[in-house]
Amino acid sequence: TWKRKGYSTDVYTNVAMDWLKARDKKKPFLLSLQFKAPHHEYGHAARYDELLAGVPIAEPPTLYEDVHRSDSNLKKEFLKRTKFHMLLSGGNPKQTKEGNAYYFRHLKDKAPNEMWKHDPKIDKERIRVAYQHMIHKYIRCLTGNDDNLKRVLDYLDQEKLTEDTVVVYTSDQGYWLGQHGFYDKRLILETSMRMPFLIRYPRMIKSGSVSKDLCINVDLAPTLLELAGLKAPTAMQGRSMVSLLQGKSPTDWRQSQFYTYWGAPNHYGIRTERYTYLKLEGHPAELFDRETDPDQVHNVAANTENKAVVKRLEKELLKQIREVNISQNNLPGNN
């Protein structure tokens, strides 16, 4: 336990740097440095108070989406039960109809993060300023992450450890920043489901290379074990990404990513290179074609032309369920 004062991201990095400098330099090391700040309310250090002050940040295309009239029951059911919308909230007995939405949670915030001037009688105006409030705080918070990560990378350079050190920059999931009017995470939709994953290992990975193969979070452990020269336990799920890091795509690599969520609402499904297909408790299956609709505005499962697609994806979903070895009774909404 460390009792230190200061901004959390700075303090965590201070502890990490102290450990790095005091470690036995004759031995390999593993450092896991995690930042809590990029969660609501996106607290940031005072030195970022004026960062982008008064500068409008670009809005996501679906910020003003009318989710109440959506053809996706997933979005509508989520909206009924969540507070994670710019303006709307309700359905949860612990929440009021509006009072827990982002706008109302921060309407009376003080400088440097006060709400911008707006017409409170116009919903679009309220969503606009709620988004600008959130995204400015988020950018200021994430800048703290960037600056502290630089401290660690600079140390590796100074100690001539860069070539021999694997650096992974990732998260436990994605995060909505106004898409569909939401913030936070939780659903199989793109901005929520997709997680950032950057990895640097100069002796193996070509700088600036990008892989478009479908990976999932359980692939990380087998990857790190192989890089360390160890075998993954047979009971461990996931598959090493080392071949992908070397620029080679195995012919038998997965064709879809399996997703489950127990919560509000219960749902599960798969994501392929083009489609997102999901099952939602109490409603028909849903389909999003991200090639024709990258922002996932419309559920097109009922469209006649997608009948064969749905059939193929249902087969792939069942394959994933078998491979993960989860029983039907244990899937979200089925127990």
TrEMBL record:
InterPro entries (UniProt xref): Alkaline_phosphatase_core_sf, SGSH_C
Domain N-sulphoglucosamine sulphohydrolase C-terminal residues, every copy: 178-321
SUPFAM superfamilies associated with the record: Alkaline phosphatase-like (SSF53649)
PANTHER family with a match to the protein in the record: N-ACETYLGLUCOSAMINE-6-SULFATASE FAMILY MEMBER (PTHR43108), N-SULPHOGLUCOSAMINE SULPHOHYDROLASE (PTHR43108:SF6)
Entry protein name: N-sulphoglucosamine sulphohydrolase C-terminal domain-containing protein
